[in-house]
Amino acid sequence: MSKKTKTPEQQQYEKLEQKHELKRPVLKNCIRAFWVGGLICVVGQAITYFYIYFFNFTEQTAGNPTVATMIFISMLLTGFGVYDRLGQFGGAGSAVPVTGFGNAVISAAIEHRTEGFVLGVGGNMFKLAGSVILFGVFSAFVVALIKTLLIIWGVI
Amino acid sequence: MKKLLSFIAFSLILLSGCSGDGKVTESDLALLKTTNPPAVLIDKNTKGNLDLVENIEHDVEKMKELYDVAVVKSNGDTLVAYKVKHLQRFHMKKIEKKMTKMLEEKYPDENFIVSSDYKIFIEAVELQEKMKDPNFTDKKAKKKLDKIIKLKNEMT
C-alpha cells in the first residue's frame, strides 16, 4: 500500500505510533553480540587447544571434535535454561556460532515435549535446525562439485 | 547469572585439572612461547649430516614470516615444523609453498615434510627432548617421527 491511499485515520495512527515507538539500540546490540560471540569463540579456541595438547589431533583435525563439544555444551546449557538468558543478552552473538545450532535443536525439543516423544519431540526437534542441515549439506555439495570440476579442468 | 558464573568456574576447574604430574617441560609450553629447539638428527652422526640439519634450520629461520623453527632429520625424511607470525597467518599457504620451493632447490637430495601445524611443532619439540635421554634409541625416535608424519598427513 502506498502512502497516498492511506486514509486520514491511518495517517493519524502512524503519527501516534511513531511518537511512542522505542528506538532500537542497534549499536548497543551490535557491541553485545560482538562480545558474546567473541567469548563463545574464545571458549571454542580453548577447547581446540585442549584437543591439540591432550589428544592426537592436529590444528586441521581438531575442528571436528571442537564443534561437537561446543554443540554439546550449548545443548546442556539450553536444558538448564542458561542459554536462553545468554541469547536474550547477546542476540545474534549467541545464535551465529555453532552453539546456536545446539540451542535451536534442544529448545524445539523442549517446546514440543508435551505433544509426545514421536510426533512431538521427534517430529519437531529439527524444525529450525533442519534448514541449517539441509542448506549446509547442499552448499557443501555445490562447493565440492565446483572444486571437482576445477580440478578436472586443471585450474587448481 | 549466578548459574552461568558457577558453570564457567566449574569448567575452568575441570579444564585446568589436566595439568598432570607438575613437571613442566619445554614441549608443554611450546604453544605459548618461542622455544627455538635445536635441530635433531636421527641418522649416522657424521659431521656432514650435522652441518646439513643446522644449515636447513638456519635457512628456514631466515624467513621473516616465521618465529620458531624445529627441524628433525632422519635417513629418510626431514621434518620442518614452524610457527607463523600471527598477522602472517593469512598467507600460510603461500609461505609453505615458498619454503618448500626454497628447500627443494637448495637440498635436492632431501625429502622434506613441511608443516605449520602447532601439533606437529609440539611433537617435534617433544621428540627433541626425548633424544636427550640415552635410553631413547634411534629406532624409537624413527618410529616417533613416522608417527608425526602420519599425523601430519591425516585430514579428518
Question: Could you please describe the fold and organization of this structure?
Answer:
The complex is a heterodimer of chains A (156) and B (156). In chain A, 76% of the residues lie in helices and 0% in strands. Chain A is an all-alpha fold and 156 residues long. Chain A has two domains: 26-125, no CATH class; 130-156. In chain A, α6 packs antiparallel against α7 (117-124). The longest helix of chain A has 29 residues, at 26-54. Chain B is of the alpha/beta class. Chain B has a single domain (23-153), classed as GMP Synthetase, Chain A, domain 3 (2-Layer Sandwich), CATH 3.30.300. Chain B contains five helices and four strands; from the N terminus they run αβαββαβαα. Chain B has helices spanning 2-16, 47-61, 92-106, 118-131, 138-153; strands at residues 40-42, 66-74, 77-84, 111-115. The interface between A and B is medium-sized, with 20 and 18 residues.
Would you spell out the secondary-structure blueprint of this structure?
The complex is a heterodimer of chains A (156) and B (156).
Chain A (H helix, E strand, L loop, with lengths): L7 H13 L5 H29 L8 H18 L1 H9 L1 H4 L3 H13 L5 H8 L4 H25 L3
Chain B lengths: L1 H15 L23 E3 L4 H15 L4 E9 L2 E8 L7 H15 L4 E5 L2 H14 L6 H16 L3
Parallel strand pairs in B: 1-2, 3-4
Antiparallel strand pairs in B: 2-3
Helix pairs in contact in B: 4-5
Structural class of chain B: alpha/beta
Cα(first) to Cα(last) distance of chain A is 52 Å
Secondary-structure element pattern of chain B, one letter each = HEHEEHEHH
CATH architecture of chain B: 2-Layer Sandwich
Number of DSSP strands of chain B? 4
Greatest interface: A-B, 20 and 18 residues
- Assembly type of the chains comes to heterodimer
The CATH class of chain B turns out to be Alpha Beta
Task: Give the helix level of chain B as a range of percent.
Answer: 40-55%
**Structural domains of chain A: how many:** 2
In the predicted model, the low-confidence regions of chain B spanning at least 5 consecutive residues are none
- Determine the CATH topology of chain B: GMP Synthetase, Chain A, domain 3
Tell how many strands the DSSP assignment of chain A holds: 0
Helicity range of chain A:
over 70%
* Secondary-structure class of chain A: mainly alpha
